[in-house]
Structures are given as C-alpha cells and as structure tokens.
Amino acid sequence: MPIETNQYFFGNSLVNFSEGGAQTNLPYWLNQLTLEAGGTYDVNGGFGFLRQFADRLEPANEWGFQGITGQWDDDTERFADQAFSQVIITPGNFIQDLAPTANYPDGNISPVDATESILATVLTDQPNAQIFVYQGWSDLAAFSETFPPSESSIERYYDYNQEDYHTWFVDYVDTLNASTPDANITLIPVAPVLASLLEEGGPLAAISTTELFTDSAPHGTETTYFLASLITYQATNGEPAPASFDVPANIHPLVAENYTELLDYIEVQTTNYMDMVVPTPELEPETPVEETPEEETVDETPEEPIIAPEAAPPPEVTPDPAPLPAPEAEVVSPPEPELAPEDTPELEGSLEAERAPALELPPASDTNLEPPAEPETETETETETETETETETETETETEMWRGQELEQGVTVADMMAAEALYCTPEQIAEAEAFYAAEQSGDLGFPTVPMSTFYAQESPYNDSEEDESAPLSASLKTIVTDIL
After folding, report:
1. Which long-range contacts (CB under 8 A, 24 or more apart) does 368-375 make?
2. Mean pLDDT computed over every residue of the chain
C-alpha cells in the first residue's frame, strides 16, 4: 500500500532551519521521497524546547514548507480535531551533560518530566498516532571554539554522537516507555547514523565540514538535511527511501554517486541503533493469555472422577430433577467483576502557560548565570527571616522590568541579559542600549556568557586548554532565533 503520512513535529532548527532556505529542513525532503514512492505527505509543527512544549496549552502550528499543504488550520480547528499518523518530539542537542531524569539547572523538572507532560496531551488528543523521538546531531561548539573545527575535533565530535550522546537518548526513551508504556516511543537515530556516514572511514568521509554545517550550532546545509531525511524515512516507514529518487544537483555529488549503496548502509545502521531501545510494550499481551488456560484446566479435572464410577447405573435417576442447572448459573456470574475496566491514568492539570511561553535558555548558558540570592549563606539566621527573604525575592522576580516590559514569572533580568548576549550581535545590542538609554541606567551591561561551560570543565571531548575565557559560540544562537 502507498505510504500516507501526516506528521506533527515538536521541533527545533535541527528539523527545520528556516533561515537556511526552502530545502534546509526535514519535511521538504520527506515529502519529495514520499511522492516518489507513490504516497502522500502532510506536516505541521512548531519551534521550541521540551519545557516550552510542556507549558503550552496546545501545540503550536507555525511551520510551512514548499510544496506541502498542512492539514491543520489552527484558526478554525484545535490540535485534538486532527488525525496525525505520527507525532515526533525533538529534545535540544545541548542538554546531554546531565541524565535525562535530572532536573534542569535552573528549574525543578527534568527532560523526562517535561516530556511526560507532552505525552499526556498527545495520548489524549492523538490516541492513534505513532510517537517518535528525533535525535538530531549534537552541539558542535562543545568541541571547538572556532568554526570550522580542526580534523581532530570533528572526529571526536562524530565519536561522541555515536557513543555517549546516543546513550543519553536511549536512556531517555527507555525511561519514558517505562513510565508511559502506552506511548510506545520509537527513536529516530539520526545523529549516530549520520556520524557513521561522515566519520573517517565512512562512506561520505570525503565531504568537508563546511559542506555539511554552516556554524557551530550546528545548522546544516541541504546535504545534511537530505541525509537526515533518508534516516528518518527509514525509521518512520520501516523501509528505505525509494531507490528511484533522482538526487538533485544541490546535494553533494558523493551522495548522488553512491545513493543506492547509502540506502543499504542507512537501513542496516538505523535498524542497529533503533534496536538498542528496550521494547517494553510487548510485555502487555501476556496477562490475558495466562487467564484462559487456568479456567479450562479447572473445568476438565471434575469430569474425570465422574467417568470412573460407570459401573453403577442407579445414579442416572438423580440428574432427572432440575436443581442441577442452578449452580451452573452461579458459576457464570462471579467472573463478571473481573471484566471491570482498569483505572484510567490521572491527567495532569491544565498548565497555566501562555500560547507563546518564555524563551527556554540552554543549560550551557544557565550554568554561567548568577543564581538568585538565597539566604543559605547565613546559617545562624532565624527561619522566619529566611522565609521573608525568599518571599521578597519572588516578589521582585515577578515585577522585574526589561526593556520597558514586565518579565514573565520565573524569568529574571539576568536571564534576559544572558539571552541577549547569546542570540544578538554586538551591533544589535549596541542599538538596543542606545534605544532604551532614556529609560534604563547607562551602567547596565551585558555579560559575556561562555558557551558550554560544563563541557569546558568536565567533558573529555573538549580539547580547549582555556577555562571560561572562550567567547560565546554561535551554537545556540540560531536554534532559538527560530522561536523568537
């Protein structure tokens, strides 16, 4: 049967790099491949990170692609009114320094907690959809302070994508499948398969870094997103992309020259990496099978002693009275309570979040922000004084102003200063300072936030000899620019 796909993406710029052009995204190529296979393809999606997705009252509908008409019109219909065949969740590529069950450095929930909130919405509104996790390639800035990186740095980057980075995603999906078995999540292992293609000795090792990535985020070229679509097509459809597809000229010629061999390679590698995830839902059907043989065995045992006393014909008179059918009806009635439906899982309360939530800052930057003042340093202060200090701090946070606007709850001026340093050019910051000079103090500065501090201090993959003096990389600038 022809493939009929209607996808929704909780995505980021590793799925849709809108600033790169009409073809630097996954859906464009998935549509081309599906049409070549004789199928149909539709897609909707929105930008964000896990906590933003979890905070929204309803998933966002923000995307549009060349040659694709999304079926969902959110002006007239809700997410629950659609019938998506697949829902794909995309975690950030810079949060893997902590376990998926560990809380974000600046919050009280973990990536798993946030995803469970997303799943509660998806399972309710899209009960028939297959659920996937898209594993985009990791942050390149953690391995090199400059772009393009050195050959040794890019090789260690490819190794990381196939090892520790992939292990994080396997643990993440396994944990979610254990806590929410009805989701039956499947991993799309783009990062490790792509890395195995490009690493030294791989089929596409001759393609240079600058022909694949445009910055240290890293956002990809048309070739990168095309390769990612081949892996995603295999994972979501269970079969390779059509071999008859004519690879266009804007894709690297090595891909076109080795296209059919690449399809075979991707099929094997994708299957191998997908098999690392534990298939927990298969254990559910075992319970009904065990109940039926036990009842049949009990019914057979009483029949044998009745056959044994055949030598005495007089007992035939006893079955004539009609009281015997009565106990049979009593036997049928007790099993009925066993059919009582299982308790449905309690749905989480509606989250009090706006349609467009506050910007989610990457943990790499969060580690460099000054935490809010807490009364922990004065151990001898009375409990009542500590409580008053915390209350005052929360009040100040709620009423803080930035650039003439009141900040949302949980967002501080320090957060906005760091975000501005992350996602704006020096020229943009200078213009903003000049514009708001009349309303804000001229002493307001914007700190330089070192990128991926945790990698610089702890990760064995970082070859930089400097501590925290490295300038901020462009790794995350354009990821969140798509949201802004």
Report:
1. 368/418, 368/447, 368/449, 368/450, 368/453, 368/468, 369/106, 369/414, 369/415, 369/418, 369/449, 370/414, 372/397, 372/412
2. 76
Environment class of residue 447 by beta-carbon count within 10 Å: exposed (0-12), middle (13-18) or buried (19+)? middle
Stretch 198-204: mean pLDDT, rounded? 97
Bridge partner residues of 399 (DSSP): none
**CA-closest candidate to residue 7, choices 264, 235, 267:** 235
Tokens representing residue 116 in the block: 């469970």
Coil/strand/helix, residue 33: helix
For 50, 262, 335, the CA distances from 405, given in Å and listed in that order, are: 25, 52, 65
Whether the CB-CB separation of 134 and 89 falls below 8 Å is answered with yes
Indicate the residue type of 15: V
The residue among 478, 450, 477, 482 whose CA lies nearest residue 466 is 450
Kindly report, residue by residue over 57-94, the tens digit of the pLDDT. 999 999 999 999 899 999 999 999 999 999 999 999 99
What's the pLDDT tens digit per position in 116-155?
999 999 999 999 999 999 999 999 999 999 999 999 999 9
* 361, 484 Cβ separation under 8 angstroms: no
What would the two tokens of residue 391 be? 């209350």
How many angstroms separate the Cα of 19 from the Cα of each of 24, 139, 315, 459, 482? 8, 18, 92, 31, 8
Please give the angle made by the CA atoms of 189, 190 and 195, to the nearest 5 degrees. 110
User: What are 268-287's pLDDT values in tens digits?
Assistant: 999 999 998 876 545 444 45
